[in-house]
Write a structure and sequence with these properties.
The protein has 629 residues and is of the alpha+beta class. The protein contains 26 helices and 17 strands.
Length: 629
């Protein structure tokens, strides 16, 4: 796992481009402490920071060149099927002029480059992995950048009169200083509503994020983007297998995914919370690996926060080398400044991932498997149940709008909760359907609340664009929810935070649930097989007797900390300072923002800590990165 940077421009001199990319490389040193590489010609400069995982020798250093020096690649990621592709590329293609490629390293980087040389961008259809890479053709003066199907690895870019600048993180682009970057006020309401900004937009104006499953070509000062993979094509994978056959296929695909992700030349392990997803990964690791698995669990003395007893149960069952890392909430609190400093893109989440990653890295592991994605694919969240219930109540649309509005108002007055506000807003919609209900399910505020303290709001524009493209297929509502979850919350919160926080301590995280073959198959399974009565039933049945009943039947806990208490005590002055500064921006209604904070301090149950914290994080991030607001 690594960090990549590049700048292609006719405006800047060769020395200026080299200086800019080297500066960007320095700012990505945390992502790749093992090597620093830089190459340039008259048009482009490419930079690379290396974290060695496969082929630890200097052969894997980058930028990396083809044998004839025509092509040069910088690559961040892991290609899980690189060994199979390597064998294919070592053979001449029958019936064509494609000649065998003679490899000089054992890296997956060279396999990516060789596949591109033979197949062009069609090679992306062959790749199974997590990656973001750039390949430059020195003859055609053409740059190609690409990102993996599910968006595990990030790629940000700026395209303007100065040229084309790209990086694994946003901050190197800002720090390049090729122009003055400012806050993207067009997506501010979206950030406040959803605690993130959905790709391709970012919180920085003019800085974009390449969408998952996309590639970009830049030549003659022109950039063009194309899609090579979309989850929306799941309609092609709809299956009519029996339930036992479906379970067997899920088991096969997940086992294969775990096995592929164990290829590494460094010590590795797994995050083990003791929940179904992480326990399943550890159980399958123990089945396919000849080595003893190292597992890592963060535990607390406070029983309401700790899942350590479940993690111990799994560790004992699969005879892992278990590391229980005891932390107090104060340990998290003390590391909070580090976590905020590591945040490349502001988010309502992240510090938890940073502390877990840091503790795992300090235990001597460079790569860890994670259970991220299990809930999104196998209908583990409450949003799946809510959308199913909404589908059953489609008759509500037959009621007069004024009647629905009165009902919503009555519910809100009776409940006086966040849920009450959302029900009121939902019943006030002209049409209640998937496209109108899903965004509201995922929001931190209602539109009415948001408009009270932010001016000129349009929080639904981007998410409506994402959700409206998802196919609505009979008996596959859950697949539509899964795709929406993956394209919004998973990719733009969980994966972004997992990458920025783990790479801040040079730890690579791999997610077996995010194998595209597994996802494509499960999306093709109908609702009755996935959620006959309880969440994740298909996953549990597919695992057979792998997990003990104590894990399968225990209540879902999640990873929680006493934030509500911290914001009113230990973090009060920090939060108050940032909220006050935030309220002074010209896009805010100062009084109402300050009232939100006061209501939180006065224990208003409609103002939870999560509705405050991401505002604090945003203001702190703006200041730390000198963004014009």
């Amino acid at each position: 796992m690594c960090g990549i940077n590049g700048f292609i421009s006719n405006t800047f001199s060769v020395d200026q481009k080299k200086e800019i990319v080297q500066k960007m490389n320095v700012s990505l040193s945390h992502r790749g402490p093992d090597n620093d590489g830089l190459w340039s010609d008259e048009l482009i400069a490419l930079g690379h920071r290396r974290l060695s995982i496969i082929d630890l020798s200097s052969d894997g250093n980058q930028p990396f060149f083809s044998t004839d020096k025509r092509y040069v690649i910088i690559y961040n990621g892991e290609l899980y099927n690189y060994k199979e592709l390597k064998l294919e590329l070592q053979r001449a293609s029958q019936g064509s002029n494609d000649q065998p490629y003679f490899f000089k390293t054992n890296t997956d980087t060279e396999v990516v480059l060789a596949a591109f040389i033979r197949y062009g961008t069609k090679c992306l259809q062959l790749f199974n992995g997590m990656y973001a890479f750039a390949i430059y053709d020195t003859l055609e003066k053409k740059l190609t950048v690409a990102r993996d199907r599910l968006g595990v690895k990030p790629l940000y870019y700026y395209y303007g009169e100065e040229g084309f600048l790209f990086s694994s993180e946003i901050r190197p682009i800002i720090q390049s200083k090729i122009k003055t970057f400012s806050l993207n006020k067009d997506v501010l309401a979206e950030y406040i509503m959803y605690q993130t900004v959905y790709a391709p937009n970012t919180i920085v104006k003019s800085v974009k994020m390449l969408l998952p499953g996309n590639y970009l070509e830049y030549q003659n000062n022109t950039a063009s983007v194309a899609e090579y993979y979309s989850l929306n094509n799941f309609t092609k994978t709809i299956t009519d297998l029996s339930y036992p056959e479906t379970c067997a296929k899920v088991n096969e695909l997940l086992t294969q995914s775990v096995h592929q992700r164990l290829v590494a030349d460094v010590p590795f392990g797994a995050f083990l919370s003791g929940g179904i997803d992480s326990s399943a990964i550890v159980g399958l690791m123990s089945k396919v690996s000849s080595e003893k698995i190292q597992t890592f669990n963060i535990s607390f003395d406070e029983s309401e926060f700790s899942e350590s007893k479940y993690a111990k149960l799994i560790a004992k069952k699969f005879n892992t080398q278990h590391h229980e890392i005891k932390l107090t909430p104060q340990d998290f609190l003390h590391q909070l400044p580090e976590a905020l400093a590591a945040m490349d893109h502001p988010s309502g989440d992240g510090p938890n991932t940073y502390v877990v990653s840091k503790a795992t890295k300090q235990a001597g592991v460079t790569m860890a498997l994670s259970g991220i994605g299990g809930d999104e694919i196998f209908a583990g969240y409450d949003v799946f149940k809510r959308m199913m219930e909404l589908q059953k109540k489609s008759w509500i649309n037959a009621l007069p709008l004024f009647s629905r509005k009165l009902t919503g108002y009555a519910v809100q007055k009776r409940k006086k909760t966040i849920a009450g506000y959302k029900i009121e807003e939902l019943l006030g919609q002209q049409t209640i359907n998937f496209n109108s209900a899903y965004p509201l399910n995922r929001s931190a505020f209602t539109y009415k609340e948001l408009s009270e303290f932010i001016k000129n709001v349009d929080p639904y524009k981007n998410i409506n664009s994402i959700v409206s493209k998802v196919p609505q297929i009979k008996d596959h509502l859950l697949s539509s929810v899964s795709i929406s979850e993956i394209n919004t919350y998973l990719q733009n919160v969980l994966l972004r935070d997992a990458d920025q926080m783990s790479m801040a301590v040079a730890l690579e995280v791999r997610e077996p649930f995010l194998d595209y073959k597994l996802i494509d198959f499960v999306l093709g399974v109908n609702d009755e097989k996935k959620y006959p009565h309880t969440p994740k039933k298909l996953l549990i049945d597919s695992l057979g007797d792998l997990l003990p009943s104590e894990i399968v039947n225990r209540p879902k806990m999640g990873f929680t900390l006493p934030w509500q208490i911290w914001l009113k005590n230990d973090l009060k002055s920090f939060c108050e300072k940032n909220i006050t500064e935030f309220s002074n921006y010209d896009f805010c209604n100062k009084k109402n923002v300050e009232d939100l904070w006061k209501r939180f301090l006065n224990n208003d149950n409609t103002v939870t800590w999560s509705r405050i914290w991401h505002l604090v994080v945003l203001n702190n991030w703006i200041k730390e990165n000198n963004i014009l607001a």
